[in-house]
Structure formats: C-alpha cells, structure tokens
Specification:
four-stranded mixed beta sheet; 14% helix; 2,3-Dihydroxybiphenyl 1,2-Dioxygenase, domain 1; alpha/beta
C-alpha cells in the first residue's frame, strides 16, 4: 500500500528576467507589489501583493535559458478589474483591453517588461462594468 503524498502548501511562480532591476521596478512600481526578499544584486527577488506571491530570477546557468519563455499566462483574480485596467492601460503594453467574455469573466491582459502575459479578471456576476474604463 502506498503512503499518501505530502500536502502542498502553495505555488509561487518564478519568472526569469534578463533585466532584473527593470522587472523589480515594474512589479513594485507599476503593479504595487512589495519586495519581500532578495534584490537585483542577489540575482532574485521575492515579491507580494494582497496575498499573491511571485519570484523573479536572473538567468540560471544550470538551465541554459537564452530568453524569457513561458507558454502560458499568469491569471490574477481581482474584485475590481476596472480599477486595475485604469491603472495599467497606459503603464504597460496591452495585449487586449478590458471586455466581458461569454464564459462569464470580465478581463484584460498586459505584458510585463519581459513579455510575460499577465491577465486580470473577475466574474461578470461580481463586476459592475464601468463604461468610462473602456
């Protein structure tokens, strides 16, 4: 009989950055994350905002990375997607503007300074569309 696996206690995305100072500035200045540990001189940084954690790291010689690569996106759930849209629409490169989707979400997406896709969304039943935000 196999023993039950140990429980997981969290998941923190770790993104590679070839411009770690710029990435730290984007996540702290543009998105409002706080630096929790590390820093550009350390080659890594741990950041948090409203209970969401992310780590950034300079390229790792063991992994042979040559450029940022990630085939997915980071999806950030929020209670006020329109406020985030107003905050980011002119501060980051937009992938798609805020809109309501048939699958029940109001969302938009921007790219961070490395080109990683960040999506922000909230359920339509919780969103009060703000026509001025469009």
């Amino acid at each position: 009989m196999n023993a039950a696996p140990a429980m997981l206690s969290g998941l923190t995305p770790m993104l590679r950055s070839w411009d770690l100072p710029g990435s730290i500035a984007f996540y702290t200045g543009t998105l409002g994350f706080a630096l929790q540990g590390g820093g550009a001189d350390d080659g890594w940084a741990s950041l948090a905002c409203d209970g969401v954690e992310i780590m950034l790291a300079a390229p790792n010689a063991h992994e042979g990375d040559a450029a940022p690569a990630f085939t997915g996106s980071l999806y950030l759930r929020t209670g006020d997607v329109d406020a985030w849209w107003r905050r980011l629409k002119d501060a980051a490169r937009v992938c798609y503007p805020v809109e309501d989707f048939d699958y029940g979400m109001r969302e938009f997406a921007v790219y961070d300074n490395n080109g990683y896709l960040l999506q922000f969304g909230q359920p339509l039943c919780a969103a009060a569309p703000d026509e001025a935000a469009r």
